[in-house]
Amino acid sequence: MADRIHKPTKFPSRVFESFHGGDDPAQLSRVAHETANALLSRVRENPDPEIVERLVGYTDEHGIDAVAELWSRASARSLPGALWRLYLVRLLIRQDPTGTSFLYQRGTEVSTTIDQVVAGAPNPTSPDDIVTLADAILRGIFAGDFGVALDRAGAFCRVMAAGATSLADDTDATAPERATELTTRALRFAELADEFSACARLWRTDSLD
């Protein structure tokens, strides 16, 4: 990753809402795959707690753009693509833990799946809980079961999608613009959930590159 240190970059919600994923795998940069594989292999072979924590909090100090430059154009179903999306979701949570925990809590109330159990946040879910969950999921990538970490990320996104959809339904009649925004956000979270789940399956068959 780049050594240049600068003020962390804010990531407006509208950018997330317009995020559709990476390019075709044939167009991926070789550097993205090499850096993702080298980083993950090195850390997982010797998961020093201090190094793991520095990686988990990397974007807090350096900003999201350093990660984006390396991995944001990678296919959603690739190692660099998965890492980029994990950092993106963590940043979104940390920028608005109150709003995120509210959406997540609503999702747990309307969901009929076990996703909230898989994600692993306490119920009820406070802003501090949701930040802790984001860090725990990313930490699991570097020093835990990689597939389980991806499953947790996918489950988290599905709960968020359910919460955003429910709130969109509530506000449709009185605040249609807000309802549209929430619906768009729900779709993005659902898309991310599918991508994380696909990456987990690929990882378990040694096919996530």
TrEMBL record:
Superkingdom assignment: Bacteria
One GO cellular component, as annotated: DNA-directed RNA polymerase complex
Entry keywords, A to Z: DNA-directed RNA polymerase, Transcription
Name the record gives this protein: DNA-directed RNA polymerase subunit beta
Taxonomic source organism: Orlajensenia flava
